[in-house]
Amino acid sequence: MPAIAMKKEVHVQAKVISICAKCSDCCGSILLDQDGQEIFEHDGYVPDFMPGDHYGDYVMLEIDLDTGKVTNWKAPTPEQIQEWIEKHKD
Q: What ranges do the domains of the chain cover?
């Protein structure tokens, strides 16, 4: 009779998932207004106001598994948003 592999169940109290995604200089970003209308679209580096030491190449997010909220997000200031738009206008 062949041996049966037994899987051991392990209980883990996971709280946060940490995601690091490499964008390879092609991070697509769309800025929408309160009505869902597009204000600005950009393809290129990760915006400077994104969390983490991303070097313009990585999206680095920590997500609380219970709430689904991004825990390392700090809302950008209006000045940061304006700077991002001005920096990447065609």
A: 16-87
